[in-house]
Amino acid sequence: MSKIFTAILLLLGLVQLFGCSIFNEKSPNDSNNSTIKINDTNHVIDSSNYEKDIIELIKNNIKNDFENTDLTIKEINPVENYSFVIFLIKQNNILHEGLACIEKEHKFYKLNEMDIAKVDLKAPFTKHTIISSLNDGRDYILIGGYINDENIDEVHIEYKNSAVNVIKIGQNQNTYMNYMIGDIKYIKEVVGFNETNKIYSYEF
Question: Which residues are paired to 165 by β-bridges?
Fold first, then answer.
């Protein structure tokens, strides 16, 4: 009788031990990811359809906060093995603007950084920025926004050394985007112009 009791206790001890180890293996995967906290395991295989892959990657990372949304890629700028992206999301008639830095690693696309904000429809144009680092340690700044004032035909990125990067705004264009890798601290101001005058500006 004592041998049977001892065997039962031993069996219960083994079950408890393995039960605990299985729980600990699964627990790191229980956290939910937001649109800002990037899920490193969430990637998209390169299907040779560049824009489709970018849309799928972004949708995978925003699905917890934006379901059944209309997502439109407005511009993609590839640089080395990275892509800088500006996109719009419309949900329940509310417009959001998003910026993303996407990295291609072998046959996969994954997010380096992403940020989404509600569009301020009262401003002539918006200024939205991401400041982060590439995997090689270089800093970058990604600047973009939504243009509400249809009279704006240029957006200027002005630098402290008096250099200016001019972004021409087309007739049906409602967003702008620009990036800089390296000396990001030298950006001074983002300014919107019509044909003759400065309309609105954001200082850094």
Answer: 157
Q: Taking the CB of residue 6, how many other CB atoms lie within 10 A of it?
A: 10
Predicted TM-score (pTM) of the model is 0.76
Looking at per-residue pLDDT, the higher value among 158 and 43 belongs to 158
Taking the CA atoms of 192, 158, 188 and 131 in sequence, report the sign of the dihedral they define: positive
Compute the 3-state secondary structure of the chain and give helix, strand, coil in percent, each to the nearest 5: 20, 45, 35
Specify the amino acid at residue 141. Answer: I
- Measured CA to CA in angstroms, residue 17 lies from 5, 9, 20, 23 at distances of 19, 12, 5, 10
Tell whether the model's pLDDT for residue 62 goes beyond 90: no
Choose between 13 and 34: higher pLDDT.
Answer: 13
Strand duo 44-45 + 108-118: pairing: antiparallel
**Residue 200 phi, psi (nearest 5):** -160, 155
Residue 31 DSSP code: P
Contacts of 16 (CB under 8 A, 6+ apart): none
